[in-house]
Amino acid sequence: MPYHIFVSHTGNDKIIAEELTRVINNAFEGDIQLYLAFQEIGGGDEWKKSIRDNLQKCDALICLVTPEYARKPWLFIEWSAFWLADKKYYILLTDDVKVSDLVHPMQDRQATNITDDVSVRMFFRSLASDSKHAAIPYPQVKTFVESVKDAIFIRDKEKMDKSYGKYKDSLDELPEDDNEKRSIAEYFYNRDDFDTYEKIVSKIRDESVKSSMVIRLIKQGDLSRGVQISEKILGADKILDIVLNLIDLQHHDSRQVRDLVDNISTKNQSELRKIAVYLLNRGEGDSELFNYVLEDLTNMAEVRKIASNVIADGQQKSEVFNSLFEKIRLSNQREAEKVMVELWERDKELFLEILKKGLITNPVILKRLEDLSSK
């Protein structure tokens, strides 16, 4: 006689219940028969009576516990019928549920994580023993786990479609939390609905969230859309993060990078200087992008800080340093003086060489530097 098991689950978890029923029935070759209420009850049946009758005649119970299950009192009532009758019951959990989420008596029974091979092997061992099946169908464990994972994926997708679909027509009910908005936006992006994606992104206030979304798009290879979204970011520091990621991904010479550089240039020259330093640290001081950044740098104090970096790295005799110093001394001799003072401390020979060339033309500054050289 078959071993009859009642499968207790929520309506939203029906597809998972169907898969585990199918695999178990096949694996135990008819020695186990699972009862699914939604399959057995016809439209005109008295469903409560049908469930009650099957609870009485089944030898055991499977509780498919998901977060929603744990919130449904009716499902605990189904379980209590077996507990009070001292019948066998099996607790099957999804990854997002802990044993501590269950009522206390349910915690006394060993639970099975239905996405874990080892846990399912132990579950199959118990089923084989309780049903008197000739052998434990271990080869079917992997099929069980993979089928359940696929069913969970489909269930979650269907729930997401139902939950997020409303935002396509109206954003009035968007959650306040920006990370939740990001999840909703990415749902539409993954469905190639970039218009809705962009509308939701425009509602995100936290620019860190926005910049992380842009960087993700860029890393996925969607450069044009990533840069398009970056136009909604105001903070130069966040745009800087995007530019540095583009540099790492070898997009130096793209028009998009230069547009972002221009954007930073108008907002914060200090952030622009960080791009130049980043390129220098990568050994790319001779790149077109470095020269482009240098052209955008109009604040000579920031250019001088780049020159200081070059001196600190011992590269003061390089072409990069020559370009930086030429730009500084033509625009601001006071900043050029600061560079010369740093040179005096690091490379007196080059200091004297520059001094002799007459590149410092401000007489007051020239006098101070000559006094310094005589010390």
How would you summarize this macromolecular structure in one to three sentences?
The chain is α/β, with parallel strands linked by helices.
Roughly what percent helix?
A: 55-70%
Order of helices and strands: EHEHHEHEEHHHHHHHHHHHHHHH
| Structural class category | alpha/beta
| Low-pLDDT stretches | 39-45
Strand percentage lies at 5-15%
Global geometry: elongated
Radius of gyration based on Cα positions: 34 Å
- Lateral arrangement of strands in the main beta sheet: 2-1-3-4-5
Main pleated sheet:
5 strands, parallel
Give the termini separation.
Answer: 107 Å
Overall average residue pLDDT: 89
Instruction: Say how many strands there are.
Output: 5
Tally of separate helices: 19
Summarize the SSE layout with pairings.
Layout: E1 3-8, H1 14-27, E2 32-36, H2 37-40, H3 47-57, E3 60-65, H4 73-84, E4 88-93, E5 111-113, H5 117-131, H6 141-164, H7 178-189, H8 194-201, H9 207-219, H10 223-230, H11 236-248, H12 255-267, H13 269-281, H14 288-296, H15 300-312, H16 319-331, H17 333-346, H18 348-356, H19 363-373
Parallel strand pairs: 1-2, 1-3, 3-4, 4-5
Helix pairs in contact: 1-6, 5-6, 7-8, 9-10, 9-11, 11-12, 11-13, 12-14, 13-14, 13-15, 15-16, 15-17, 16-17, 17-18, 17-19, 18-19
